[in-house]
Specification:
By secondary structure, the chain is an alpha/beta fold. It is built from 14 helices and 13 strands. Helix 4 packs antiparallel against helix 5 and helix 5 packs across helix 6. Helices cover about 40% and strands about 20% of the residues. It is flat, with a radius of gyration of 23 Å. The chain folds into three domains: about 160 residues, P-loop containing nucleotide triphosphate hydrolases (Rossmann fold), CATH 3.40.50.300; about 70 residues, no CATH class; about 60 residues, Ubiquitin-like (UB roll), CATH 3.10.20.30.
Length: about 375
């Protein structure tokens, strides 16, 4: 999967979990927030600039006239409650906003100053509710797909029968996600894998998307590990972020660091890179624009050329690549070139995190 200049993340949570406060913090926005549930009735959409200090270093070497940081498109949707897949609360219409996105962020809460919609904070219970409602919605989509395939299968269409078997495997993992926060289909062959992944992609199943959790709280940082432990055994530690979004809203990132806390934007950037299995590379020439790109690990320079511009891929000749750790040692692009930092590569070169890439192509 190629991404481009931005990766898309959806914020999902129960009402009054702090989703919109987190959205405002990350996107420097001013969407309406309230102590009362269902303040967000549709969706909020904005852009978070990823934490990427290498951009500043590279722009100084290149004397860039403009810079573009890697970005996260964030979608904040209406709060989800128990029974949403049956139309409770604001229903599950909001999932139509989440389905096309790349990663899901489940926002959970332990907030002593704002009442919980169910009366008491319970991180594990809320996480279970969110996964259950999403899974039920996904199963409804699978069911509609199955109805169509069964009609085709009944008139002897072999491919429809094979797809029905694949859907059974996917359904098992949707149920596994609801119960255990895991989704991993065991495919019997590469052909089955290709067909299965195509079904998952075309149906836009939220259960199958990479995810992480933000626990939003207003308690002392000394108790944050305690909150993390509430999900111990359910998901990996690297997928859990704890933050006090409201307090962080009131100060800048430098002050956040002065308190010994890593800013939420940096934590999210690092988590997205891990769970999304992505790397960031850069393009730019001296005195020109420096641009950042996001791709999945394993992406070739030829595939990336097509993502940047179709003409680049059609006329691809070769590429020059500089490793960040080597390139940053120099004060100018010319000096880096003279010292052989840029290496010529072919179309099969696999992009690594931090690469500066220049593609040669014919029009």
């Amino acid at each position: 999967m190629l991404y481009g200049e931005r990766i898309r993340v959806g914020l999902v949570g129960i009402p009054s979990s702090g989703k919109t406060t987190i959205f405002n913090l990350l996107c420097k926005a001013s969407a309406e927030v309230s102590e009362y549930p269902f303040t967000t009735k549709s969706k909020n959409q904005g852009i978070m600039q990823m934490y990427e200090p290498r951009v500043e270093v590279l722009s100084k070497i290149l004397k860039s006239n403009e810079v573009k940081y890697p970005a996260v498109e964030i979608v904040d949707v209406a709060g989800l409650i128990k029974g949403a897949h049956k139309g409770e609360g604001l229903g599950n219409e909001f999932l139509s906003y989440i389905r096309p996105l790349d990663i899901v962020c489940y926002v959970l809460r332990h907030i002593e100053s704002v009442p919980h919609i169910d009366g008491k904070d319970d991180i594990k219970r809320d996480f279970d509710i969110l996964r259950y409602e999403i899974s039920m919605s996904d199963l409804e989509i699978i069911s509609r797909r199955e109805e169509k395939l069964k009609k085709l299968s009944s008139v002897g269409q072999k491919e429809a029968r094979e797809t029905l078997k694949i859907l059974e495997k996917i359904k098992e993992q949707i149920e596994n996600f609801a119960q255990n926060a895991k989704f991993k289909v065991e495919w019997e062959s590469e052909d089955e894998r290709a067909k299965g992944e195509k079904e998952i992609s075309s149906l836009n199943l939220v259960s199958a998307k990479p995810f992480f959790v933000i626990i939003n709280t207003d308690i002392s940082t000394s108790r944050w590990d305690e909150l993390k432990n509430s999900l111990k055994g359910k998901i990996e530690d690297e997928k859990i972020i704890v933050c006090d979004a409201l307090s962080e809203m009131e100060i800048d990132e430098k002050e956040v660091r002065n308190y010994g806390i890593t800013p939420l934007r940096e934590l999210i950037t690092n988590t997205i890179k891990k769970i999304g299995n992505v790397v960031i590379f850069f393009t730019g020439f001296e005195g020109k624009e420096l641009r950042s790109w996001i791709v999945q690990k394993g992406t070739t320079v030829f595939e990336a050329a097509g993502m940047i511009h179709s003409d680049m891929q059609k006329g691809f000749i070769s590429a020059e690549v500089a490793k960040y750790e080597e390139y940053k040692k120099f004060t100018s692009d010319k000096e880096a070139y003279q010292n052989g930092v840029f290496i010529k590569v072919g179309k099969d070169y696999i992009i690594e995190d931090g690469d500066t890439i220049r593609i040669k192509f014919k029009v």
